[in-house]
Fold these 4 entries.
Entry 1:
Amino acid sequence: MGAAVLIRAIEPTTGLALMRRSAHPHGSILFIDWMLSEEGQTVLAQQIPRITLRKGIKQIPRHQELYKKEFVFVNPASIGPNLNDLIASYQQIFNVR
């Protein structure tokens, strides 16, 4: 309860989320729709610059290597049951207690 309605992690750091009780949910939906459109992905790739997942968008050359990477989409429902293991892995990898 109270979790985000939709989360899509787009590597390396771009993310979109629509919160359950957003002040302007319809505006948020329009923005997410634009961000995922060809125009929005072109802006991400060329002006920000960020790597995009949409095929056919010209990437900045230094991002070509990242674009070859295999992307993984995480199902939010899988995080809850594995949360303690994920936290332990994070702490071990980054040497954080």
Entry 2:
Amino acid sequence: MGNRSAIILICAALSASGAASAAWAGCAANLVELRGDWGQARFTVEVADDPAERAVGLMNRPAMASGAGMLFVYEQPQHARFWMRNTLIPLDMIFAGPDGVVTRVHGNAVPLDETVIDGGAGVLGVLEINGGLAAALGIGAGSQMRHPAFGPAAAWPCTD
């Protein structure tokens, strides 16, 4: 079984569990969904939507479940820059504009590296997931992200 198949099975198993199904019945603050020509994926997330939470992010955590992540949400679209200071696990960073459309994916950010990762301008949200998952699933620019933070005018709004 390839990595992509294993990841799809993990996501399917998570969505089939009773607790996950109830949480994923509609949009929720702790859920991010992504879709594209590659399929769909769901992640249970912590939301970092104020400066203090965004400054800490996923620092000093030794591990993260495969179906988990952190969604950074800004008050308005901006130029987003990240680094991996004090971050112990490799991460994929998925940058999205105010419409929820993915503009860039930075794969496998190196733990503890202080090199700036530039997500570009016009970013409203950044989803961090375990390193390598975005590539394994096929998530890339043009994929759509669904979360209440993107509002009703998003490419994939929470209203459907």
Entry 3:
Amino acid sequence: MEEAGGQMSDIVKLIVYVTDRGYREAAYPVIRSFFDEPRPCQTGLVVAGLARPELLIEIDAWGFIEEPE
């Protein structure tokens, strides 16, 4: 976000993919630690696999950066 001219508070939605339901317990507190209230909308999905076999978690973050007036 910062490289695009935004900041973490510009993230409006997260999609978290985990390859095992048990990974949510470890992942979500870490994810929450990066955001102040109000946190972005979040969807969690358990998937059979990701792009590479060694990956366990993938996070897709959507942001909205307002243009200066």
Entry 4:
Amino acid sequence: MRTMTFSIGVRQVVVMGVAGVGKTTVARDLSRLMGWTFAEGDAFHPEVNLDKMSSGHPLTDEDRWPWLRLIGEWMSHEIAAGRSGIVTCSALRRAYRDLLREGRPEVVFCHLAAEEDLVANRIGSRQDHFMPPSLLHSQYDTLEPLEPGEPGVVVSVDGSAAEVLARAVAALQLQPEGD
């Protein structure tokens, strides 16, 4: 597990990874624990992107840029308001992460990592989600792990939700409210 040191102040944590890795669960739990604002990155997708993925077609970069810019605008708004926040976003490629960080030194990534078989099993048991299991492999093909110099940590999702949350808190060196 990679850890890093952060300065005190406003932070924006992007919980990233492939579909089905547990981004929403971890981000919501971190948000509750820290008392920070939470945003579901999928809510920023235009309907055309959701329809495209629902029909089994992966998004292109041209599909993703406007979505990523909206997430960045949300983070900028939170930063300007003096609020720390947590947002989910696959952020699979370095170029996507660079766009999310552009002009926002407060942004740090929490990459939830797992083997494809584990995530495929999770996706297979999900109901009412726009992302079909058939697109998972394309996400792994696109995934560029965090590189040296990128602000972030990698957290394994093996184990229970509580264990993953504890690893994320430790890796991000967070101090939950009340501690």
